[in-house]
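Need a sequence for this fold. Nothing fancy.
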């Protein structure tokens, strides 16, 4: 029976290699193709009901999830991992994540609408559950939708782990996300997943390296592989001692973060008390600063909150490239600045809706002592400082 004939019956067809002998059922993990319908589905684990060669990997096209689910229900003792396609709008008309449970390791989320709140929340939860998220567009996806998801993938690479487009012939094409973060220098090489357009290869890579490691692995232009975050270098220096090229890149990194008005960033950095920055492979990947607040700003805060910040340094301009988030870099930068503050009082301004930065501030043993409405940010912000400085600021 040919592979096509077997697929038409909803059977499992593992990849075989010429000259490779068959293995007994259930002895070695293989990748199996369940083909019916219009979506991708791949199972990697002990063979279910067929004999197969040892070699893993198969290009998966048009699977039938019900067929695989039936096999798994008949053999609950069998492990294995699954890659599958699901619509991101939540209208799952066939077995989905709940039916396959923790076996699902890769999901190709098919999109025909631009990113929205519920979709982003679903991706975040999926990533939290250890699933590799692929945003998948196709010929029916409007160009504006594809562009919007390209931007989302570039901004949140630890949530949207990969971005593929499905060609009319069913093949997958990795979307080029080498666009820079704002005006900062592009990172070296390309994400490793761009070389894994075969879903079987992608699933095997996720199983081998894990989601957290694979999403940071990159292929250099010379073909070598490296992992982001493996060779970080932390530097702390006054502005005059920061190399000119690095200073300009820190400026661009702060601007790319989009959290502050940019017209005074250069002058504030030039007069800062201390600049902390992180480099890897010749790129500046994160920064934070202890800077002197302007007199008019101190007066504005005093009028709105009653806190007197004269004599305080402001800890701010913290920016971490998206590809490096989740590694604790921001926390290490803030700890380094605090250790080098030489006994000076300091505070931070954090938007009330910025839960990630507030969590980072708590880890650095600072507390919120007040809040006010920032006209420049057009939102409520909080004043954070070390507990021992809170009473001084409120006098």
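Here you go.
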């Amino acid at each position: 029976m040919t592979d096509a004939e077997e697929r038409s019956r909803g059977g499992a067809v593992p990849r075989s290699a010429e000259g490779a002998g068959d293995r007994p059922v259930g002895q070695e993990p293989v990748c199996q193709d369940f083909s019916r319908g219009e979506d991708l589905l791949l199972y990697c684990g002990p063979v279910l009901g067929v004999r197969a060669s040892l070699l893993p990997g198969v290009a998966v096209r048009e699977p039938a999830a019900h067929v695989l689910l039936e096999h798994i229900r008949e053999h609950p003792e069998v492990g294995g991992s699954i890659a599958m396609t699901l619509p991101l709008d939540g209208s799952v008309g066939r077995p989905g994540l709940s039916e396959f449970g923790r076996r699902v390791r890769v999901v190709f989320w098919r999109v025909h609408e631009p990113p929205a709140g519920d979709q982003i929340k679903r991706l975040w939860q999926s990533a939290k559950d250890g699933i590799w998220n692929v945003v998948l567009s196709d010929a029916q996806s409007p160009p504006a939708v594809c562009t919007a998801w390209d931007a989302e993938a570039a901004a949140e690479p630890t949530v949207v782990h990969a971005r593929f487009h499905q060609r009319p012939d069913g093949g997958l094409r990795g979307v080029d996300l080498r666009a820079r973060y704002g005006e900062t220098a592009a990172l070296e090489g390309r994400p490793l997943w761009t070389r894994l357009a075969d879903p079987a290869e992608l699933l095997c890579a996720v199983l081998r390296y894990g989601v957290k490691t694979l999403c940071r692995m990159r292929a250099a232009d010379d073909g070598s592989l490296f992992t982001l975050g493996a060779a970080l270098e932390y530097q702390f220096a006054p502005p005059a001692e920061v190399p000119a090229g690095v200073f300009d890149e820190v400026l661009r990194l702060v601007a790319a973060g989009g959290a502050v008005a940019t017209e005074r960033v250069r002058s504030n950095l030039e007069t800062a008390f201390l600049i902390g920055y992180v480099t890897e492979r010749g790129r500046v990947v994160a920064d934070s600063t202890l800077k002197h607040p302007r007199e008019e700003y101190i007066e504005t805060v005093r009028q709105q909150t009653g806190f007197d910040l004269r004599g305080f340094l402001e800890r701010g301009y913290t920016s971490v490239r998206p590809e490096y988030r989740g590694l604790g870099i921001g926390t290490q930068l803030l700890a380094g600045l605090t250790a080098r503050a030489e006994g000076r009082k300091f505070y931070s301004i954090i938007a009330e809706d910025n839960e990630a930065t507030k969590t980072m501030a708590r880890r650095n043993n600072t507390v919120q002592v007040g809040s006010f409405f920032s006209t420049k940010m057009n939102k409520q912000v909080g004043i954070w400082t070390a507990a021992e400085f809170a009473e001084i600021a409120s006098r």
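For context: The chain has two domains: 3-227, 233-394.
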